[in-house]
UniProtKB/TrEMBL annotation:
Residues 1-65 form the Fibronectin type-III domain. InterPro entries: FN3_dom, FN3_sf, Ig-like_fold. CDD domains: FN3. It comes from the Eukaryota. Gene3D superfamilies: Immunoglobulins. This is Fibronectin type-III domain-containing protein. PROSITE patterns: FN3.
Length: 71
């Protein structure tokens, strides 16, 4: 599989970040995302015959993170 992600879903797919994922994997962790930020993800299958169609974009907002409490 090929996982694509971006902050702007209207960017051309060539400008999205691309991460290859082995076909035997059922999960994948994307690292180094910004807190409290909306990302868009798309996935595409790939095999010896080429690549399949791209999925529609899926929106995901990362966690807000912890706030510091001043005393």
């Amino acid at each position: 599989y090929i996982l694509y992600y971006t902050l702007d879903k209207n960017m051309p797919i060539d400008d999205w970040v691309m991460e290859p994922i082995g076909g035997d994997r059922l999960t994948h962790q994307v690292l180094d995302l910004n807190l409290d930020t909306v990302y868009y993800f798309r996935i595409q299958a790939k095999n010896a015959k080429g690549v399949g169609p791209l999925s529609e974009p899926v929106q995901y907002r990362t966690a807000k993170g912890e706030r510091l409490q001043l005393k």
